[in-house]
Design brief:
With 252 residues, the chain is of the alpha/beta class. The chain contains seven helices and seven strands. Helix 3 (63-77) packs parallel to helix 4 and helix 4 runs parallel beside helix 5. The structure holds nicotinamide-adenine-dinucleotide.
Length: 252
C-alpha cells in the first residue's frame, strides 16, 4: 500500500508511535523513528530491521533538532514522503487540576505540545517545499472536540487537563490553516483525533468510559491503523485539512 514511501514518526517510541511504525513497515513503507531516547530508539530500530527503519534522536520542539532530523533522514533514505507527529512532551505539572495550575508548567506544555507542532510543521513544510511535495499528519484527540466527561474521572486520581483540550483544539485549527496555507504546493495536512487508548487506566474509569462508546470503548493503538494508512496512501489524495475522529462514538 505504501510502495516504499518513507514516513517520519515523531514520538516513535510511544504507545501510538510504535504501533504506527510497525504498521507502516507492514504496508511496505519505511520509517524514521524520531524520539528523545537513543538506546531505546536503536533497539526499536533493530527490532524493525535496519533496512526498513532508522532511529534518529529528535527534540520535536527545537528547530535545530528538527532540521538535523530532516537532513539526516534525507541523507539516509533520499526523501521523506510523509510525517506523523506523535511526540507528546509533558512537563512535571502535567495532570494537575485546573485550580492548581502554575504559569511556568502551562508555558512549557502549551509551547512544547502546540508550539512544537507549529515549529515541526514549519520546518517540515520548508523541507517539503524544496522536495516538491509531502504529507503531514497531526494527532489531536477527542478532548479537542468536546468537553471532558468529568463524571468518568470521579473516584480516580486522573485529570483531563484544560490545557490538553486547548492544545488539541489548536491542533485541529493548525491542520486546517496549514492545509490551506500550502495551496498549490502539493502538500497535504490532516489530523487524526483518537479516543482513549488502553494504558492501565483504573477499572472504575474504564467502565464509565466504555459505556459512552458504541462497541469496544477504550481502544488499542492498532485500532488507529486503518485511518493512518488511508491518510498516508494515495487513496486519500484529495483529503486535505481534515480531522478524522476514531473514537467508537465517544463524541456522539
Ligand atoms: N494515549 C491516548 O489515549 C491518546 C488518545 C488521544 C490522543 N493521543 C495523542 O496521541 C499522541 C501520542 O500519544 P501516546 O499515547 O503515544 O504518548 P506516549 O507518551 O506513549 O508517547 C509519546 C512519545 O513522545 C516522545 N517525546 C516526548 N517529548 C518529545 C520531544 N520533545 N521530541 C520527540 N519526542 C518526544 C516520548 O519519548 C514518547 O516516546 C499525543 O499527541 C496524544 O495526545 C493519545
Amino acid at each position: 500500500m505504501l510502495n516504499d514511501n518513507v514516513v517520519a514518526v515523531t514520538g516513535g517510541l510511544g504507545l501510538i508511535g510504535k504501533a504506527f511504525c510497525k504498521e507502516i513497515i507492514k504496508n511496505d513503507g519505511k520509517v524514521i523513528i524520531g524520539d528523545l531516547f537513543i538506546n531505546q530508539g536503536i533497539s526499536f530500530q533493530n527490532e524493525l530491521g535496519a533496512e526498513n527503519a532508522l532511529f534518529l534522536e529528535l527534540n520535536s520542539s527545537d528547530s535545530d533538532s528538527i532540521d538535523n532530523f530532516l537532513e539526516n533522514s534525507k541523507n539516509h533514505f533520499g526523501k521523506i514522503d510523509s510525517a506523523v507527529h506523535c511526540a507528546y512532551p509533558r512537563s512535571k505539572q502535567w495532570g494537575t487540576e485546573f485550580e492548581k495550575l502554575k504559569a511556568e508548567g502551562l508555558r512549557d506544555d502549551l509551547f512544547n505540545q502546540l508550539g512544537g507542532a507549529i515549529i515541526f510543521s514549519q520546518r517540515l513544510i520548508s523541507f517539503y517545499r524544496a522536495q516538491g511535495y509531502g504529507n503531514l499528519i497531526h494527532i489531536s484527540s477527542i478532548q479537542g472536540l468536546a468537553a471532558p466527561k468529568f463524571e468518568h474521572y470521579e473516584g480516580t486520581k486522573m485529570v483531563s487537563p484544560i490545557e490538553y483540550s486547548a492544545i488539541k483544539s489548536g491542533i485541529i485549527s493548525i491542520t486546517k490553516y496549514l492545509a490551506k496555507y500550502c495551496k498549490g504546493e502539493n502538500i497535504r495536512v490532516n489530523s487524526i483525533s483518537p479516543g482513549g487508548i488502553l494504558d492501565n487506566q483504573p477499572e472504575v474509569f474504564l467502565e464509565k468510559y466504555n459505556s459512552s462508546c458504541i462497541s469496544k470503548g477504550m481502544m488499542e493503538p492498532q485500532d488507529l491503523n486503518g485511518t493512518l494508512i488511508y491518510l498516508l496512501s494515495s487513496m486519500s489524495k484529495f483529503v486535505n485539512g481534515q480531522n478524522i475522529i476514531v473514537d467508537d462514538g465517544w463524541t456522539l
